[in-house]
Each structure stands twice: as structure tokens, then as C-alpha cells.
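Example with several molecule types.
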Amino acid sequence: MNRSFSESTARARVTHLLDAQSFLEILGPAERVVSPHLALLGVPSSFDDGVVIGSGTLAGQPVLIASQEGEFMGGGVGEVHGAKLVGLFKRALHLKPAAVIVLAESGGVRLHEANAGLIAVSEVMRALLDARAQSIPVIMLIGGGNGCFGGMGLIARCADHVVMSDIGRLAMSGPEVIESSNGVEEYDSRDRALVWRTTGGKHRYLIGDCDVLVEDDIAAFRHATIPLLGQSVPLSLEAMEAEHALLTDRLIRYGNCRDALDIWQRAGVSDPARVADMEASEMQALKAIQHKEPA
Amino acid sequence: MNWDSLLNELFDPSHRVTRDGDLLSGTAEVNGRTVTVVGTTNHAAIGVELALAQARVVLDTVRKYPGRPIVLLVDTQGQRLRHRDELLGINRYMAHMGCCVELARRQAHRVIGLVYDQALSGGFITSGLIADACYALPEAEIRVMRLPAMARVTKIDEQRLAELSKSNPVFAPGVENYVAMGGIRALWTGNLQAQLLAALDDSPTLDQRAADGAARGGRTLAAQVSARVVNA
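Resulting C-alpha cells for the full complex:
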């Protein structure tokens, strides 16, 4: 039976992603490790500060896992939330799990504790890269309705692997922020199709920012994650040069495109308008064609 | 301080750092040691091109000059707020810059960040904040958002935020707050070249910011919470 990833809570996503009964939460709600800053502002806090962390197994292999709760402050990273993520990556250095899996759903820095959140995001990034340097793969799963933006969008692209659903969105600035800075003709945040084409899982998959595209189904995320366990991508000079070449090439190919539809067309998708209606499996076939015939 | 005066205070006058648009790059000597300089000026908006150009400088240094220190000069208004940048995946371009700095650190390059004018949100995360340690001039401005905008987003009265920011460094813009929270290691005053030399010798390569924040009383929970997770 299909269990929607996007409609599940952060905790339910973890429970159903991992092997049954295997999840052990660290600093769970009973410990009441809450943000000290929200109370000062008179804003309700959460007993897990919006992120569930712990350990478990996936297909029998030990993993560490974190899951952000988009319903609490949009998954925003504050001091405690960030410190839980940092701690998880540091824990990985000792435990050497088959992966650290992050179910990212966040608007980035939590503005209610802006300065602490900004530093926290940077600390998470460094802790993540420390884990990668020890060849512990970091896998990002993005499929929540709030997307993965701002600082979390940066963190996501520091990981070894990114798995997304069609509903998941990955970008830097939210459309509202861009619209309020540069006008509705720059980016109409209420044009849902435009926002989806620009940030959604299918665009990220076609352009190469996500490695695997799945349906909005926790079991599909689970299936996609299992083959990535233990698959570390080295952060070597060669790897960074290859990334640099890829990003340079992307600018040359698509730098003057005005819309995702133009990019998809230029990438060899014969009928870009149909992409919105395609199933994830159909998208994989499309990507295979693209790889055979570079533009 | 403008970038030109800054370079003359930080480095020997023979420095070969030039400006190309908003990008600053080149090499310079400090007390006989050659360093790579890369950064931005004019409150640069970091778009895909600028992120890529900075990454190129870092990669070239790693490839051609093993071990040469890198000085990141920070003056940014944050990421460029354009639809095109989002379409092209600006977060990946910026993350690439951050990962290049990480690579440099792993290959024994010391990386020092200096906020000499303005540092805002996203543009700061993948520059100064990913250095071994980041410093700032006292007149620099560091923030995520201005208080009026923050009041709008959080729906908390601006007066109230201003009041709270006096006692809690978490909300208010300002370099002192970032020092208290450990995000900035120290403010540089007086002889900048001496400060840079000292930083090149004694900046930590492990992330000590949470511990600094706790010791300085500006960010009391971060170190403690992450330690509890490690030891659970």
C-alpha cells in the first residue's frame, strides 16, 4: 500500500523508511530538549525542536537518520535543531554507519533565532563534510511539502546522494523572497506551475541535481536509498574539478534559458510540456535517452 | 573599509590582487608568506557565475600551490535573488564553493575568512563561515535579516525584537553578537597584518565555534546538545 511521504510526519517517515521496529530515537520528545529562544519570543516550542534523530537499520545495515518536521516552523534550523544534526554527524565518525540519512524539509535558517541558526547551518555543513571525509555516505531524501530551501538547500548539495520525489522541491531562495525583492515579473510566487518547474523534483532530476526520482511513497524512498548505502563519493580534487566542469558546462548550455521548459527541450526532451504528467518511472527512461545523446 | 585600503593594510604593497566586477582575486605576501586572496566587494550578490569564479580560484590554488594559505574577503548582500539563478541550481553552485574550501582545508591549506564590510545569510555560509576560522572588522555588518523584515516574517513586534536583542545576541544584527556566539573568532583592530599573521598560525582547523559560543555565553546550548547526541 502506498504511504505518502509528503503527508506523513517526520517521525512516521523514519519509522516506515527503516526496517520495522529498528528505530531508536536520540534526544526524543521525552528529554524535552527545546529551543531556549522561542519561549523568550512567546512562540510555542517543540519537544524535539523540529527534528527527529536516531539510529536504526535499513535492509539490515546500520544507519543514522535525521528527519525534519516541516510543520514546526517550516523545518527551520535553530540552535538546538542544528546541534542535534551536528551531533548526529559527529556520532557517525565513531559508529561508521552504512550512511547518514537526512530527510530534509526546511526553509533554512529559523528566523526567530536568526544568528544562531545561520552559524548552526554552517556547523552542520562542516560536520557533514567531516563524515564524508571518513567515507561515510550522506544521503538526502527530499519529499516534504515545504521543500528544502536556503541553508538546507546548500547542505543538501554537500551530500553524496540526493533522492527526491516529484513533490519535493530543492532550491536556494523561496519564490516569495525573490518576488518581494525583484517584483512579480521576475518570479511570480503564486504561479504554482512555474514554481514547480523551477524547484520541483522533476527539474532537479533532469538537470542532474538529484540522483534518483521516486514517487511520493515512503516505500519508494526506501527502495531508492538501499542501493546507496555504503556508496561514498570522495571529495577529491578530481571530483571537485569534475563538479566544476559540470557546473561550467551547465552555464554554457542553459545560461540563457528563461524557463525550465527551455532547459528540458535543449536537454533533448522531445515534448517538455508532457513532463508534468509523467510518472517517475517514465522520467527514468527519459533521463536514459538524455545520457545517450548529449546535446 | 574599501577593498583597496584593506589590501594595503593586510598585505605587502606589492600585492597582485585585482578586482574583476565584484570578484577580488590574486596573490599577496604577508611577512614573506604568499597567500591566495579570493573574495567579493561592492556588497556582491552571489550568483551562479560569482560562486563558480571563486571556486575556480580555490581549486587552482589547491592544484598548483599545495599548502598555500587562502584568505577569503567577505562583502556580500547574500545570494542573488533571481529566477534564473534558481533555475540553474544556485544552491549547488554555492555548495560547490563551500566544498572547494573544505577540500583545501583537507589538503592542509589554512583558510582564513575576514568580513570587512557586509555579510548576509547564504552568501556568508559558503564563504567566511566555511573557513577554518572567520574574523571581522569592528565596523562590519553581519546579519540574516534586518529587524523590520524579521518582524514581518516572525509576526513579532519590531519594538519587542529590538528590546530582546539588547540582552540576547540571537536576534540582532551585529558583529559583537557573532563573536559572542562563536561564529566570529575575533574582531581585528589596529595592525591588520599582524592579526592576519597570528590567525594563519593559530586558527583551529577543527570547528570550535560551538565551544567558543558556550565559553562566551552567547550560545549556550549548541555544544552541549551535540555532545549529548554523540554520547547517547
